[in-house]
Design goal:
It contains no helices and ten strands. The protein has 118 residues and is an all-beta fold. The strands form two sheets. A six-stranded antiparallel beta sheet has the order 1-2-3-10-5-8, with no helix packed on it.
């Protein structure tokens, strides 16, 4: 299956997980109907300067972020670190995280959320 950029569906979430401003989510696939694995999210997240995703946990699943552009402060289960393009983040199984764009440009990340196998 090949999707062109014009096929992607986008949505905007305000104050995502209690964060600041809005997050644009551009879905690469229709997770419920196109993917054979139980993937909950496969998308690009775009956060304008100052926007954030509030602290939250993932139970019985993993979330992977790959930073494409920008700079962020990540709270990785209580440990804060600055990340930038090329960096990656892995969290899950009860671990919590938050992400805030601390740069002057849009923070763009690929995000994939997959439940653990039963």
């Amino acid at each position: 299956m090949i999707h062109s950029i014009s096929d992607y569906k986008s949505e905007v979430r305000e104050a995502m997980r209690g964060g600041d401003k809005s997050v644009k989510i551009t879905h690469y696939f229709d997770e419920a109907n196109e993917l054979g694995s139980p993937t909950r999210l496969c998308a690009r997240l775009d956060l304008e300067p100052g926007a954030s995703i509030g602290f939250h946990t993932h139970e019985n699943e993993e979330e992977i972020f790959i930073v494409l552009a920008g700079k962020a402060l990540v709270d990785d289960n209580g440990v804060e670190k600055t990340v930038c393009a090329g960096d990656s983040i892995l969290t899950g199984n009860g671990a919590g995280h938050a992400v805030k764009n601390i740069g002057d440009e849009t923070l763009s990340m690929v995000a994939v959320i997959v439940p653990f196998a039963k």
